[in-house]
Amino acid sequence: MTHRCHAHGCLRDVPPRFLFCAPHWHATRKTLQNAIWNEYRAGQEDRKDPTSRYLAIQRLCVSELAHRPPGSLAVATEYAEQAEAFRKRAMEEGAGDPFEQLDRRKRKNEGQLELGLFVGGKRG
Ligand SMILES: [Zn+2]
After folding, report:
1. How far, in Å, from the CA of 83 to the mean position of ligand 1?
2. How far, in Å, is the centroid of ligand 1 from the Cα of 66?
3. pTM of the model
4. In the 8-state DSSP scheme, what is residue 7?
5. pLDDT tens digit string along 97-123?
6. Which of 47, 48, 79, 93 shows the smallest number of beta carbons within 10 Å?
7. For residue range 2-12, what is the model confidence (pLDDT) as tens digits?
8. Where are the alpha helices (DSSP H) in 4-69?
9. Within a 13 Å sphere around the CA of 86, how many CA atoms are in the beta-carbon half?
10. Distance CA 39, CA 21 (A)
């Protein structure tokens, strides 16, 4: 049985425990790669029982890749909506917000922005 890369439109075969082929995996940003491994449970590809948290992150990865040329905004949006649906399901299941782990860098950048505004404000 073949198992294809989950990137939209990609036809490359990959081992079932891998989400993407090597080029698509390397095109995925590090924060999302880490999140995938955080949510991955050994053997889920055999049991066919990935968690809602995993699926939320997985759809988010596919959505981000679909945004890139020659991607399609419609396709990216569709996956983003699926990601949001799985995220909601995970929270309803009491598994917490799977996207929370993605926020660390954003918060850090927001902190830097605030600092920049503060410094700018002092100057003016
Ligand atoms: Zn691929």
Report:
1. 19
2. 11
3. 0.79
4. S
5. 999 999 865 555 555 554 555 555 444
6. 48
7. 899 999 999 99
8. 22-26, 30-39, 44-47, 52-67
9. 20
10. 19
